[in-house]
Design goal:
2 copies of one chain form a homodimer. Chain A has about 220 residues and is an alpha/beta fold. Helix content of chain A is about 40%, strand content about 20%. A 7-stranded parallel beta sheet of chain A has the order 3-2-4-1-5-6-7, with helices on both faces. At the A-B interface, helix 1 and helix 5 of A face helix 1 and helix 5 of B.
């Protein structure tokens, strides 16, 4: 009983996502779907990126969370247009939620849209949101084995960020083993090591973003 | 279309979970359903608990992961009976998976069964596994806002562990704010601060476990 219905839900989502993609393309909006476990640093990464980007690009953010508007409030403090999607306990964003959220922006005044998905390494991977690129984040305290245990995100991501490298001295995290897992799953994906606390490595991420918007 | 089917799935799971609970009770097995985000330290907490428990109690472990048997291999090194459930990308354990896994143990020779759920703060909360108690874990690098943003686990957990307190000096984690969120959601739940790296605070967890098995 369950599986055919799940397939219908996914097919319906894919159809809506195709419409979202067309809509974003028509307005020349580059859109990133940012996926990670809870607490990997998605919101902080956005906060740390605005300064370098806002002179050249018009930014906007969609925030997904099961509850609260805490993240949207953090973004709003930077005077970036933001819409919070509260999923009421739901474990991922879907394309129809994004489609509705887009009505709150003047899309002609947006060059780069960040969609911060619900913190979850599993479910968001199944739902296309109409994005240009998918960004996967892991933070060092989560352990170097995460790509092996939760492979789907790392197989499909266009770029992979290893965040919180400032904590490496205090952890048993083997960067080589981590990179080896990624190389097996997705050899083409760049792996960017960075720390939002110290700022180390953020320049690579900003360069990747600027190149992405240009192309 | 979708919601009635989801309700049916949950109702079916609850019925199977009731059977699992009866089965475990008949064999006097105390069972913990351990839920957290990926990388909060579930497996390491088990590894650090075996030494203090194994003289008095017969232990067993069920490991849930979307892919690989990495965690089961870690447990097996300690000569504790372990069964791995690979969910093939699935985002949570369900009662029927646990029911099948129990066939691999001599339940009369088990006092305390740990079920390590798939690393996910959202979906596992909806699925009763027939457990005696639910354990919620957060680690300090995930941030003190997690109970507010992902409230369901923290509302329903019988005990809440704050892991990786050895990293507090390097983080902007406010333990008071974290405890305040928990107090609002679930004032009865004990909050145990500990570090599996240094061993600090593990004694409270072991005492809580031993008391749970006795009662």
């Amino acid at each position: 009983m369950e599986i055919p219905v799940v397939e219908k839900v996914l097919k319906l989502n894919d159809d809506i996502a195709a419409g979202v993609r067309k809509r974003l393309l028509a307005h020349h909006v580059c859109t990133l779907n940012i996926i990670s476990a809870p607490g990997s640093g998605k919101t902080t990464l956005l906060e740390r990126s605005f300064g370098e980007l806002r002179e050249d690009l018009n930014l906007a953010v969609i925030e997904g969370d099961p509850d609260t508007t805490l993240d949207a409030e953090r973004i709003a403090k930077h005077n970036i247009p933001v819409v919070q999607i509260e999923t009421a306990g739901g474990c991922h964003l879907e394309a129809n939620l994004v489609d509705n959220a887009l009505n709150n922006f003047d899309l002609d005044a947006v060059d780069l849209l960040f969609i911060e998905n619900v913190g979850n390494l599993v479910c968001p991977c199944s739902f296309d949101l109409g994005e240009t690129c998918r960004v996967g984040i892991v933070s060092t305290p989560e352990g170097h084995d995460k790509p092996a245990k939760y492979p789907r995100l790392f197989k499909e991501a266009d770029v992979i960020i290893l965040n919180k490298i400032d904590l490496l001295p205090y952890l048993n995290f083997d960067v080589n083993v981590f990179r080896e897992y990624i190389a097996q799953l997705n050899p083409a994906a760049p792996v960017l090591e960075l720390s939002c606390t110290t700022g180390e490595g953020l320049d690579q991420w900003i360069a990747w973003l600027k190149n992405m918007v240009k192309t």
